[in-house]
Design brief:
With 339 residues, the protein is α/β, with parallel strands linked by helices. It contains 10 helices and 15 strands. It has 2 domains: 4-210, DHBP synthase (Alpha-Beta Complex); 236-331, Threonylcarbamoyl-AMP synthase, C-terminal domain (Rossmann fold, 3-Layer(aba) Sandwich). The strands form 2 sheets. Strands 1-8-2-3-7-4-6-5-9-10-11 form an 11-stranded mixed β-sheet, sandwiched between helices. It is globular.
Length: 339
């Protein structure tokens, strides 16, 4: 199969629509990351997404719809606070989990009676969703557990020869996946942190809780990104706090002595500490939104240039940094070091 990258035009949108209506899979841009899209009503399309990605069968998908789509077709009910959240943040990087009408493929929610729905803000995504006028499930367009893609070329690196079309909508501005908020209870509960923060949600609806993973045997998750190692570069990784810099330096020396090319992912103001010792650095920046936008691109760049990546936790906390730290910890949890 030849994989084509096409700019978003009326012609490429029509081509994407034909593929989706035919049960195929298309990579589409959003403001957060690129998604691997399929018709949410089509069992074979949804199953193809799981197959191509190598995605675990118990990891639910998010249905993407355009801003004017009639949600009553796919969700059973919507609490008042969810309507307020939609009005405040949608279109945007917020996914809301509702009771489902069970009209979409049962493979979307992995057998649950809930459905996660997002209205992306990206103009290209909105254009395609309006063109097809159907919910499109679109998990991140990367091989399972690999770093999420923030450019069309990232998608091509993972799926060349595996999907027919990548719609190129430019670099993603958000950089990490949407916030997922469970709206099936009396108050909203964040299942996955992102660019819409707990504080922002609470300001709109008065309160917001945060999910703490503690699943019992046989219990299923309502959101992607809750379990499993995610977002990981294809190199050895380590993660250290600012208080563990001495340990980080010792690991760098050890890896270099064993012939590894080592890189360091850190905030801008820490680069000099490592560069003066001849270590290449990958600059996260110093501001939360900047770090979110840069993270995945830097992880993909590091895996091409390094055998070992040492990440230093940013010192900034709260707000968007909850999402950044969530992704960074999942990306760099492969190595255990005796502290």
């Amino acid at each position: 199969m030849e994989t084509k990258i096409q700019n978003i035009t009326p012609k490429s949108l029509q081509q994407a629509k034909e593929i989706l209506l035919g049960g195929g899979v298309v990579a589409i841009p959003t403001e957060t990351v690129y998604g691997l899209g399929g018709n949410a009503f089509c069992d074979s399309a949804v199953q193809e997404i799981f197959r191509v990605k190598g995605r675990p069968a118990d990891n639910p998908l998010i249905a993407h719809v355009h801003a004017d789509y009639d949600l009553s077709l796919i969700i059973d009910s919507e609490p008042a606070y969810a309507k307020k959240l939609r009005a405040a943040f949608c279109p945007g990087p917020l996914t809301l989990v509702y009771p489902s009408t069970n009209k979409v493929s049962p493979f979307v929610s992995c057998g649950l009676n809930t459905l996660a729905v997002r209205i992306p803000a990206h103009a290209g995504a909105q254009a395609l969703l309006k063109e097809i006028n159907l919910p499109v499930v679109a998990p991140s367009a990367n091989l399972s557990k690999h770093v999420s893609p923030t450019s069309a070329l990232h998608v091509f690196d993972d799926f060349n020869g595996k999907i027919p079309l990548i719609l190129d909508g430019g670099e993603c501005t958000g950089g990490i996946e949407s916030t997922v908020c469970d709206c099936t209870g009396e108050v909203p509960v964040i299942l996955r942190p992102g660019l819409i923060t707990k504080e922002m949600i609470a300001e709109v609806v008065g309160c917001c809780e945060e999910y703490v993973p503690a699943l019992r045997a046989g219990e299923k998750v309502k959101s992607p990104g809750v379990l499993y190692k995610h977002y990981s570069p294809r190199c050895k990784t380590y993660l250290f706090s600012e208080q563990e810099l001495a340990l980080a330096f010792s690991v760098i020396e050890k890896e270099q002595s064993e012939g590894q090319t080592v890189g360091v992912l850190c905030e801008s103001d820490k680069r000099a500490l490592f560069e003066e010792k001849g270590v290449e650095t990958f600059d996260l920046g110093n501001h939360p939104k900047e770090m979110a936008a840069r993270l995945y691109g830097l992880l993909r760049e590091a895996e091409k240039r390094c055998g070992t990546l040492v990440a230093i936790e940013p010192t900034v906390r709260g707000g968007v940094m909850s999402g950044v730290m969530n992704r960074l910890k999942k990306a760099c949890q492969s190595q255990d070091i005796a502290h």
